[in-house]
């Protein structure tokens, strides 16, 4: 019986030691992961997109809007009307009375806009808004 208790105590101690060691390793791994994530987000351009209050900077709103709503923007551009192309015009600084002309121009340039890369597309949209 004494042998069983000794083995049981040894087993419990070994299990506790393994769990404790694994916990340290897990804690270390989590810390390394979060530190790496913080370093990446702190040193990449993503941080420059936002103000200290966490709001998107005005100069990045057009890029973010078109990237996040690409399918809807493309559909509205093809039709030459819709809430997404109207919002796009607003982000480009167009007044309400210039929206219709912009939407017609954008619809006319649809083929060219869709074959361009994202940055070229934004430049073309800016030119259409003039």
Can you describe this structure?
It contains 7 helices and no strands. The longest helix has 42 residues, at 2-43. It has 2 domains: 2-43; 58-128, no CATH class. It is 78% helix and 0% strand. Helix 3 (70-79) packs across helix 4 (83-91) and helix 3 packs across helix 5. It has helices at 2-43, 58-68, 70-79, 83-91, 96-108, 110-115, 118-128. The model is unreliable at 36-44 (pLDDT under 50). It is elongated. With 130 residues, it is an all-alpha fold.
How would you spell out the order of helices and strands? HHHHHHH
Q: Supply the number of structural domains.
A: 2
Distance between the termini: 92 Å
Tally of DSSP β-strands: 0
Basic shape: elongated
Please mark out the parts with pLDDT under 50 across 5 or more consecutive residues, or reply none: 36-44
What value does the Rg take, in angstroms?
A: 28 Å
Instruction: Give the class from helix and strand content and strand pairing.
Output: mainly alpha
What is this structure, in a nutshell?
The chain has 130 residues and is an all-alpha fold.
Layout: helices, strands, pairs:
Layout: H1 2-43, H2 58-68, H3 70-79, H4 83-91, H5 96-108, H6 110-115, H7 118-128
Provide the descriptors you would attach to this structure in a database record.
130 residues; mainly alpha; 0% strand
